[in-house]
Amino acid sequence: MALSESLSPFCLALLLASILGSSEARDFLVGGNDNAWRVPPNTTDSLNQWAEKNRFQVGDSLVWKYDAAKDSVLQVTRDAYLGCNRSSPVAEHKDGATVVRLHLPGAYYFISGAAGACEEGEKLIVVVMSERHSLRGLATAPSPAESEGPAVAPTSAARRAVVFGSGMACSLVVLGMLM
Ligand SMILES: *[C@@H]1O[C@H](CO)[C@@H](O)[C@H](O)[C@H]1NC(C)=O
Ligand SMILES: *[C@@H]1O[C@H](CO)[C@@H](O)[C@H](O)[C@H]1NC(C)=O
Q: Which keywords label this protein (predicted)?
C-alpha cells in the first residue's frame, strides 16, 4: 500500500502545507532602506507602518544601517518604549550595522539612542510570530491594534492548537505506517 493512498486528503494537505510553508529565515532591513533609522520626516509613524506590512517569524533577523557617530539602537521594555526612556535598555547596539535575531515570539520594542529622537518617532515595534510551519490562511498576522498588547490573541492560539493537534495526529499516522 502506497504511503499517499493511506493518508487522508487532509493529512496530505497538511504535510504539503508544512513543507511549502517552511521558508528560510529572512533578514529585514529596518524601514526598507539604508537611511530609515532616523527621525521620520513628518508625523507619520513610518517605521511602525513598515513593520505592520511585514510578517516576522522566529529565526528572522532585523538589520539596521545608521551612522554610529550619531545614533544607536536600544532594545527596551514596553514601558520604556512608551515613555521613550533610554536609561536602562535591555540591549544597546551602536556599531552602525546592527543585527538582532528574533529568537522568541512576541513583541520587540526598539527606540533610538539619540537624545530626543524617540520622542519624534524614531522607534519601532516588531511582533514576531511563533510558527515557521503554519498553514496559509489559518495563521493570521496580528493586527496593528494588537501590537501594543499581548503578541498572540486567544483566537489565534486556539487555531494553532487545532493545527498542532491535527499535525500530531497526521504525524502519528505516518509514523505508524513507517514502523
Ligand atoms: C510624510 O512622509 C512620507 C514619507 O516620506 C510621505 O510619503 C508622506 O507624503 C508625508 N506626509 C506628509 C503629510 O507630508
Ligand atoms: C526610566 O527608567 C528608569 C529605569 O527603569 C527609571 O528608574 C526612571 O524613573 C525612568 N524615567 C522616567 C522618566 O520614567
A: Disulfide bond, Glycoprotein, GPI-anchor, Lipoprotein, Membrane, Signal
pLDDT tens track, the chain, 179 positions: 555 555 566 555 555 455 555 568 999 999 998 889 999 987 677 899 999 999 999 999 999 999 999 999 999 999 999 999 999 999 999 999 999 999 999 999 999 999 999 999 999 999 999 865 544 444 444 444 444 444 444 444 445 554 555 555 545 454 444 44
The DSSP bridge partners found for residue 74 are 92, 111
Map out the domains of the chain as residue ranges: 1-22+133-179, 24-132
- How far, in Å, is the centroid of ligand 1 from the Cα of 45? 10
Q: What is the distance between the alpha carbons of residues 5 and 110, in angstroms, rounded to a whole number?
A: 51
- Ligand 1 centre from 41 Cα, in Å? 7
pTM over 0.70: no
Superfamily, domain 24-132: Cupredoxins -  blue copper proteins (2.60.40.420)
- Compute the residue count for the chain: 179
